[in-house]
Write a structure and sequence with these properties.
Layout lengths: L3 H15 L4 H20 L10 H10 L5 H20 L26 H9 L9 H16 L3 H5 L6 E2 L4 E5 L5 E5 L2 H21 L20 H14 L8 H14 L4 H8 L4 H4 L1 H17 L1 H13 L1
Antiparallel strand pairs: 1-2, 2-3
Amino acid sequence: MDDILTLIEQFLAYIRIEKGLSPATVQSYRADLMKYSIWLTNHHYSDLQQVTAPVINHFVQDQNELNAKSRARLIASLHSFYKFLASQGFISLDVSSLIKAPKLPQTLPTVLTIEEIDVLINATGPVDSFDPVCLRDRALLELLYATGARVSEIVNADLNDIDFDESIIRLLGKGNKQRLVPFGHYASEALQHYLNIGRGDLMRRAKNDYDTTAIFLNKRGKRLSRQSVWTIIQYCADRAHITKSIHPHSLRHSFATHLLQGGADIRTVQELLGHSSVTTTQLYTHINQEALLEAYMLSHPRALEEKQNKTIVK
């Protein structure tokens, strides 16, 4: 029987090479499984054949610093690891299958209204600005909202991924799956303005040490990071006096919700978002249903009458 660390490395290589998972996801698996390995060593388990479901449950319960979401992710990591071990014949039985993750309450994502999107984007600066950072930030936010892309997909996109003639961008999503996503006039105009003026200024600031392929550059001419995008959006939200708790994914959530509200088919939205399952996309139909319910309560004569009567009683 190979030692536990060797098996972990084989599993990580499998999900990285054969499953095509992103470096960030692989790193999350590594952190969870290394924690598990250390715990097993401290409890004198050197062979995974010795480990039973109660042992795994004991390990999970010992991670009392984790919230329900983190605990669920840890259990998911163990399930994937043990499923791999069983499929490769390293263990005879997947005992982790008996461990159930805590049921998480379904929380609806933060969605901005169309008006809030306008205010957020305009907070990057004047539309006729020549400041390279303002140009970059407007193009960045316009493209995120126009495509519903994940932040990682946008910051990893290169210049040759954009086709202005067809108004589409090639994105590399989870599992290294490519998809082509259209973008509209506002994003196209902001992108071209940034690429024609702003990006060159950012390159010159870096002198000869700049990124020649990335669409979005930081002030040192390097590829913009995911953390920088978070900072930019927080800055713009503060300037726009948006009180909702938003983050880069809020633009993705808003993109999907506004498409469904506008009558887009859920399968189309699924393809645009790069979801492998329509079940994930269906989360946005719940948001849409809330909007429909609110419109009904405000508009239907009987519902409206009931609301007025309740107000009178008070």
